[in-house]
């Protein structure tokens, strides 16, 4: 991997704007999923390191929160500019450690950076309120203040964006951060830290502790008194654990957990538009996104036409190493991920699903899976209840609106849902009936810095993006002024 800005390939722990070894002096390898080759060894943080990071973040909080929003905004805008200036290097780093195609990596960096830009603007508008008083001798107002040190834990599927979506609003609000990135993709996180330092973000505002011991670091972040907030993106299982642990210090939490997104194609849909939208939702990042289509419901009257057009489009998708410019589907992240896809496929085929295309590993290597379609799926199959997290389209059929709403809502998850119809009345009714935090109507890609991202049910709570997103990092204080008469 040849970077123009060699400073962006870092491998140590980032505390107080310094690159430091781990206290244990241990390292772990970060590998390229496309080739299996080692990229670099990264310092393996432990208890002593995260405690140091929390200490640095606590000290920096006193300084950072006293800066005016305009000052914070200026520094964050510089950081945004540097990220965009270094986008080619960052994209190469992202593709090399995560596997997604370069074009998608660039898209992710632009998307991630847009949160930094948005919150650099939004932090100047964190208004309190004047509340009309019911008594003449008192006046009521509210003010919003940064909550304090934030512990952030992020996954590997969007190694830049999932971090930016947390750090940007936290930093903008005046909080300081200790981040634990995924052990599979720590390099983008460290590159972002280098650029934050270059932009002049003060020491201690952002601290990053890569580790292979997520459990131990997570325990400290969730139980430490100085950490006032946890923001987590990952599995529902880990989210539940972090919630339990956070109870000991009654910490505020934002949880963006698993999904099981339905895509519903009604009989009045524009089929070509539905094919395009479903394809984008399903196969982005080789199906490794928490908002990607997990169950595709087709009205039986249009299923033949949809499957024919969809299959033709899926067969065109080019599988390959993400650094090859032609590639549309890269490798899955690791052997556990591909084994899970194989397990779900085996179960579905055993229970009556029909293989339309794909259904096996690609000859390119261990972690490559063919873009796949199966139909005749039903709710008894494991993939109906679990995230596939791979390039597999599972097709179900339905005959009425009531039936499909019930099928779509029949899950513990409630992150994103999509449907395609040309009837405005149906669009309203279905959007209201679906128990999901985000709904794409005639659209498969719906996430923007300006819009609130977040789930319902066991997909978690809290919003990332939009003006709602900054509320996750502030406390609202009520002030009552008395003695007025
Ligand atoms: P996924 O299945 O998407 O990898 P995980 O919940 O396992 O979801 O991982 C998401 C993030 O949570 C990663 O950074 C991972 O290291 C971290 N993580 C996993 N287990 C724990 C834990 N017990 N405590 C804290 N963080 C954890």
Question: How would you describe this protein?
Answer:
By secondary structure, this protein is an alpha/beta fold. The chain folds into two domains: 6-257 and 459-478, 3-Layer(aba) Sandwich (Aldehyde Dehydrogenase, Chain A, domain 1), CATH 3.40.605.10; 261-448, Aldehyde Dehydrogenase, Chain A, domain 2. It has helices at residues 47-64, 69-85, 87-98, 102-122, 161-173, 186-198, 214-223, 236-246, 271-283, 303-316, 335-350, 401-409, 424-433, 466-471; strands spanning 13-15, 18-20, 27-31, 38-43, 129-131, 139-146, 149-153, 176-180, 206-208, 227-233, 252-256, 261-265, 293-299, 354-357, 372-375, 392-398, 413-414, 416-420, 438-441, 456-457, 460-461, 474-481. The strands form six sheets. It has a seven-stranded mixed β-sheet, with helices on both faces. It has a six-stranded mixed β-sheet with strand order 9-8-7-10-11-21, with helices on both faces. It is globular and about 70 Å long. The termini are far apart. The mean pLDDT is 98.
């Amino acid at each position: 991997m040849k970077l123009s800005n060699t400073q962006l390939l870092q491998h140590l722990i980032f505390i107080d704007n310094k690159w430091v070894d781990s206290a244990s002096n241990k390292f772990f390898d970060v590998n390229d999923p496309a080739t299996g080759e080692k990229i670099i060894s990264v310092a393996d943080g432990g208890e002593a390191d995260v405690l140091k990071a929390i200490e640095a973040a606590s000290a920096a909080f006193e300084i950072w929160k006293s800066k005016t929003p305009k000052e914070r905004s200026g520094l964050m805008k510089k950081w945004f500019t540097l990220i965009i200036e270094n986008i080619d290097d960052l994209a190469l780093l992202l593709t090399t450690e995560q596997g997604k195609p370069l074009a998608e990596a660039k898209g992710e960096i632009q998307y991630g950076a847009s949160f930094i830009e948005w919150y650099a603007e939004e932090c100047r508008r964190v208004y309190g309120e004047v509340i009309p008083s019911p008594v003449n001798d008192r006046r009521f107002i509210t003010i919003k203040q940064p909550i304090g040190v934030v512990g952030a834990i992020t996954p590997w599927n969007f190694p830049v964006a999932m971090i930016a979506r947390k750090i940007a609003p936290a930093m903008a609000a005046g909080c300081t951060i200790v981040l634990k990135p995924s052990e599979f993709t720590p390099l983008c996180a460290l590159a972002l830290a280098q650029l934050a330092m270059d932009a002049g973000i003060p020491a201690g505002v952002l601290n990053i502790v890569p580790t292979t011991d997520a459990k131990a670091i997570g325990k400290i972040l969730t139980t430490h008194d100085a950490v006032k907030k946890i923001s987590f993106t990952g599995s529902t299982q880990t989210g539940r654990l972090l919630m339990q642990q956070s109870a000991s210090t009654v910490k505020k939490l934002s949880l963006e957990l698993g999904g099981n997104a339905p895509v519903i194609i009604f009989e009045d849909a524009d089929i070509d538009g539905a094919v395009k939208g479903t394809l984008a939702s399903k196969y982005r990042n080789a199906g490794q996104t928490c908002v990607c289509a997990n169950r595709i419901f087709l009205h039986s009257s249009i299923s033949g036409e949809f499957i024919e057009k969809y299959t033709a489009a899926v067969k065109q998708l080019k599988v390959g190493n993400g650094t090859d410019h032609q590639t549309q589907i890269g490798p899955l992240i690791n052997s556990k991920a591909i084994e899970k896809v194989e397990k779900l496929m085996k179960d579905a085929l055993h229970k009556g699903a029909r293989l339309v295309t794909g259904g096996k590993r690609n000859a390119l290597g261990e972690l490559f899976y063919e873009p796949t379609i199966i139909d005749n799926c039903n709710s008894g199959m494991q993939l109906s209840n679990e995230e596939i997290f791979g390039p597999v389209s599972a097709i179900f059929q339905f005959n009425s609106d009531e039936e499909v709403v019930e099928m779509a809502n029949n899950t513990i998850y409630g992150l994103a849902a999509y449907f395609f119809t040309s009837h405005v009345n149906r669009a309203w009714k279905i959007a209201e009936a679906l128990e999901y935090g985000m709904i794409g109507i005639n659209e498969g890609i719906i996430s923007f810095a300006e819009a609130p991202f977040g789930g319902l049910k066991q997909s978690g709570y809290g919003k990332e993006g939009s003006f709602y997103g900054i509320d996750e990092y502030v406390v609202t204080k009520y002030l009552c002024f008395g003695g007025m008469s």
